Amino acid sequence: MRPPLTGYPLGALSPTVGRGEGEGGFGHYPRFFAKAFANNRDRLQPMELGLKGKVVLVTGASRGIGRAIALVFAAEGCRLALASRTPSALAAVAEEVEALGSEARHWATDVTDPTQVETLVRNVCRAWGGIDVLVNNAGGGYAKAFEAVGDEEWERIVNLNLFSAIRLSRAVLPSMKERGDGQIINIAALSGRVPRLGQIASNAAKAALINFTESLAAEVASHGIRVNAVCPAAILTERWQQRVAHYGKEHGLSIEQAMTALAGKGIPLGRFGLPEEVASAVVFLASERAGFITGVSIFVDGGMGRSVSIP
Ligand SMILES: NC(=O)c1ccc[n+]([C@@H]2O[C@H](COP(=O)([O-])OP(=O)(O)OC[C@H]3O[C@@H](n4cnc5c(N)ncnc54)[C@H](OP(=O)(O)O)[C@@H]3O)[C@@H](O)[C@H]2O)c1
Questions:
Q1: Residues of the chain with pLDDT under 50
Q2: Is the CB of 137 under 6 A from ligand 1?
């Protein structure tokens, strides 16, 4: 447990403030706080995220949202540990990270395999001495009705979307606790709050992931570790690109027309989201600027979660 009055950002509360300076009584509290937080004027600067040099492990980093997350962290000067099952695709993303002037290493890992997860975390810690930010992004689902999903399929989906995050969190926590710092960000989905028809297994796994995020955040907050979730919907990764193309072919529309028609069907902002827009939310949550945010889910969904009322 950290002692009280530590962990405030920017070193605002110096140990001498409020002691031995005639400030002991509570009547002097305005002076105490004015002095204690004087440094907070430093915050009135363009957003400096304070992520330079941080070690960030991203799972599912070989394409889609995971790749975008890796690149946006790279643009902030972080060191990227990239994991997924496909070494060639990871190597290509590592090159993109390096082209942005940041370091990257990659490890072929199936996150549903507990042994491979342990090896991954050990390798990253050996390479860079620890992990500052863990992004549990690997995941996914498919369209199938309840009666078509057997036990094996349920286990596969829950393993990929939930257990991978549980095991990776378990593996990184000891070193984060030791340092009294660290961020875990889980990529869940809007469908974990508002179920999507025909995706029962991943809906349930993502709902559990959101609850896991909230529960773990409460357990580790006293160690200075923050745990948050980002919940995307309708992000234009390969899967949605294929759907758009298929819809266009079926209805005799161009790709642009198909995109407009599909987005018009239920996305209040009237367009699909971009992987980089999810990545920006992740990077913000990992940053010093989000230092007082834990246990939340940020929905990057164009308003689909009914946070925007449709006239
Ligand atoms: N796109 C959306 O609209 C949307 C909406 C809601 C939620 N999400 C969530 O956002 C995350 C990323 O989605 P995406 O659209 O970018 O998916 P994607 O394009 O299908 O990419 C999935 C990534 O996960 C990796 N992966 C899959 N199984 C893995 C395993 N067993 N071990 C290690 N890596 C594995 C894949 O790499 P390899 O094949 O190389 O292993 C790939 O890098 C997922 O958790 C997804 O559920 C996306």
A1: 1-5, 10-23
A2: yes
CB 278 within 8 A of CB 230: yes
Do 263 and 195 share a structural domain?
no
CA distance 123 to 2: 29
Ligand 1: centre distance to CA 239 (Å): 10
Residue type, 72: V
- Same domain, residue pair 93 and 242: no
**For 144-180, how does the pLDDT look when each residue is reduced to its tens digit (9 = 90+)?**
889 999 999 999 999 999 999 999 999 999 999 999 9
User: Beta-carbon neighbour count of residue 254 at 10 Å?
Assistant: 9
Tens of pLDDT, residue by residue over 65-91, are: 999 999 999 999 999 999 999 999 999
Per the structure, the complete domain to which residue 258 belongs is given by 237-272
Does 102 contact ligand 1 (Cβ within 6 A)?
no
Cβ–ligand 1 contact at 297 (below 6 Å): no
CATH code of the domain covering residue 139: 3.40.50.720
Report the separation in Å between the CA atom of 202 and the middle of ligand 1, taken as the mean of its atom positions.
12
121 touches 171 (CB < 8 A)? yes
In ligand 1, which atom is closest to the CA atom of 278? Answer: 10
